[in-house]
Design brief:
243 residues; mainly alpha; Helicase, Ruva Protein, domain 3; Zinc Finger, Delta Prime, domain 3; two-stranded parallel ribbon; globular
């Protein structure tokens, strides 16, 4: 911070640092830095957020609807927003023509996607099972949910593989790395295969492509779920060719 010019900005994430810590005071006192405190929302905060976003889209949530929205989206603000936009379109609601958002609307078009469904699609991508991926994507589309949750879960899986692959490239054995990362014993065989198939360059490229797809879906006037589907099918095909 004493330098007049630097090559890149730096972001330090320190969840356990207190406001009285020296590094926080240093950032506050410096004209070249800032300290910003973020707090994870409580369940009530998330429900209020869902209610507010619904109101901005011309929806009046019935009792319990905001909680269902939070539960089915994992409290993710971006996903909540997309679900509410979908519900507003379904109910033909807008700020100038408000409509009641009840549980029947959620049952009709709301997200009802479990971890198992997302995991099957992600496994198909990682393992290059293109035919299976088509069927799993159809299940996800039928659920009517935003692709954002499973795209983010896919990124987390790719990052975990990248971390393990880096340790292997530094000389550690596959078994030792999987044990260190506490890979579930039923997933050891598939994880070992993935670590052999995915190169560091492929993992870095895949992470970038999935994140690009997520940003594209969150942009206004986007093409919808086809953006995510095209990205993951391309990744699955690339791995299938390596097999």
């Amino acid at each position: 911070m004493a330098a007049e010019r630097v090559g890149n900005p730096v972001v330090a994430i320190a969840p356990t640092v207190k406001s009285t810590a020296k590094i926080v005071k240093l950032a506050i006192d410096s004209p070249r830095a800032m300290a910003f405190a973020c707090y994870a929302p409580t369940a009530q905060d998330a429900e209020r957020l869902a209610t507010t976003i619904a109101g901005e889209n011309g929806l009046r949530p019935a009792p319990g609807v905001a909680r269902r929205l939070v539960d089915t989206t994992g409290g993710d603000r971006a996903v909540i927003s997309r679900e509410i936009e979908k519900l507003a379109l379904y109910l033909d609601a807008a700020p100038d023509r408000p409509a009641d958002l009840d549980h029947h609307a959620l049952d009709a078009v709301g997200a009802d996607l479990g971890d198992a469904e997302m995991s099957r699609a992600i496994d198909a991508v990682i393992e290059g099972r293109v035919d299976d991926l088509g069927a799993e994507l159809a299940v996800l589309e039928e659920a009517g949910t935003s692709p954002i949750p499973w795209l983010r879960q896919l990124v987390r899986r790719l990052i975990a593989l990248a971390d393990m692959r880096g340790e292997i490239d530094r000389g550690d054995s596959v078994d030792a790395v999987m044990k260190r990362h506490r890979v579930f014993f039923k997933e050891e065989a598939s994880t070992a295969r993935s670590l052999r198939r995915w190169t560091p360059v492929m993992l870095a490229t895949a992470i970038q492509r999935v994140r690009t797809a997520e940003r594209a879906i969150m942009a206004s006037g986007n093409a919808g779920g086809v953006v995510a589907e095209a990205a993951v099918v391309a990744l699955s095909q690339a791995i299938a060719r390596r097999n």
